[in-house]
Structure to design on (145 residues):
């Protein structure tokens, strides 16, 4: 009995310093980790050079491609091909976004992964409005001709 009490007291003394450590927020210098297994949803960014991916914890990531990635807006499902081992590895530079295109399989190579911020959201909205304005002007010119 005495032995088990001493053992329990020793375990409590060892556990207290680890519990007392403050919660460490993610360091901004750390690379964001989007796990293939946790992908929940995606949204296409105007310009076909980026994709905003939401994971199961509702954290949003921006995948920037090395070039333009066509027909993303017409896809119902995308696949992610990672070089890492298993589905718990992070999506990183050089991994691929795969889609089934009527012409054949299409792939987009990822250049970088970053956290999606409000500033990036604002820039995306402005780009979308600018693109819509240009399209409206083209349509108006065609009607006038």
């Amino acid at each position: 009995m005495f032995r088990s009490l001493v053992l329990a007291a020793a375990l409590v003394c060892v556990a207290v310093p680890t519990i007392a450590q403050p919660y460490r927020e993610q360091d901004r210098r750390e690379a964001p980790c989007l796990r293939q297994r946790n992908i929940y949803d995606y949204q296409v960014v105007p310009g076909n050079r980026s994709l905003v991916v939401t994971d199961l914890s509702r954290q949003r990531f921006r995948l920037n491609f090395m070039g333009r990635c066509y027909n993303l807006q017409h896809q119902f499902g995308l696949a992610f091909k990672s070089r890492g081992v298993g589905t718990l590895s992070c999506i990183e530079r050089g991994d691929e976004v795969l889609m089934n295109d009527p012409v054949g399989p299409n792939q987009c190579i990822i250049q970088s992964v970053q956290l999606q911020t409000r500033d990036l959201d604002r820039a995306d909205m402005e780009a979308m409005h600018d693109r819509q304005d240009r399209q409206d002007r083209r349509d108006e010119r065609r009607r006038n001709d």
In short: The chain has a mean pLDDT of 82. Residues 36-132 form one domain. The first strand starts at residue 39 and ends at 44.
